[in-house]
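All the exercises in this workshop are built on plain-text protein records. A record pairs a protein's sequence with a compact description of its fold. Read left to right, the backbone structure tokens trace the chain's path through space. Once this layout is familiar, the rest of the handout is easier to follow. Here is such a record, shown just as it appears in the course material:
>
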Amino acid sequence: METLALILAGGRGSRLDILSEKRVKPAVPFAGKYRIVDFTLSNCTNSGVYNIAILTQYLPLSLNEHISKGKPWDLDRRDASVVLLQPHKQWYAGTADAVLQNINYIKRLNPEYTLILSGDHIYKMDYRDMIQTHKDSGSDLTIAVQPVPIDEAHRYGILSADKSGKITKFSEKPQEPESNLASMGIYVFNTDVLLEAIQDVKDDNLDFGKHIIPHLLKSAHLQTYVFEDYWRDVGTYDSYLEANLELTNTIDKIQLDLYDRDWKFYTRSEEMPAVKIGSKAAISQALISNGSIIAGNIQKCVLSPGVVIHPGATVINSVILNDTEVLPGSYIENAIIDKNCIIGPNAKIGHGEDYSLNKDKPELLTKGINVIGSKVIVPEGTVIERHCRIFSSAVIKEKVIKSGSTLQ
């Protein structure tokens, strides 16, 4: 076997808070009909990488059900395999520790190259180009990097490289970055180098950025693979909403083309009828998924399968997940609403000029967004102001939910 892909999909995604309350981050819906992990899986199959192991951990059930035998990604064929690996000794303590705990699986397959991927980023990449760069450079490890604004570089692992692309320095989230080349967390290893490194470095929280890369930089050849196309980490409410809504732009402004027939993104789809648009519906800039019924007003929104918008309801700048129903007269703006919710008649979500930050988690909501968990019923006439977190277990009794509130 030439290449084995390991997809790291065990992270809780704590900054997604309510959205990862009952599912792992890679299983969070995105762009209407997809899950976040679909983009990495589709990149693999489109790149001809058919041997894949997915390292799961936190709340793996929904991810396991979604991937199953991998049929939507053509991974159920004879020359392909997709395996879900869970911790069997203790919970993964770091990205490299997750690989270390599955070292026997890698040894058994004995690939020449091991491709390490994250299951929670949105992007389109042909991994064959990166693997070829790795071969041509004769490197032991090749790291995909993307130039970022220098004032944001402190948020990433930052690399410096010479004119040939050989890495000369690496700093994990430096306060004063010397470069703007940010690691994307995508690696091609010579497998023997990977196995030796994860066994040699001793740390309870073994991590690629903190431990393995600095260790190898002392003696091995590390190479950059510069990737300047679309790549998003949708790990916060703000970035999740923004990345979804970007997809509603006109074709000439969309950076991630979901309609490219030469590079399809695959997913496990529910069998549902076609979208139905009512005679009084008003729709502009929207992604509307199968099984939805739209009779109200939609502006710059992403709707997952089975969403129903009744006559007289208005939804603006929002992401509404599967099978949620918005009843007549309701007004929703700047919201993320999870599955199977009922928004009662004449309710208002995203109301008023009070932008007080969330009292419990002020760092999670900064742009006026409200987030509502699955199966929440918002009673008739309820007003939800700004920066509110309403968990799936919440029962709403107040008529006005003040800005910055959390209901659990």
Summary: Residues 127-137 form the longest helix (11 residues). The mean pLDDT is 93. Residues 383 and 400 are 5 Å apart (CA to CA).
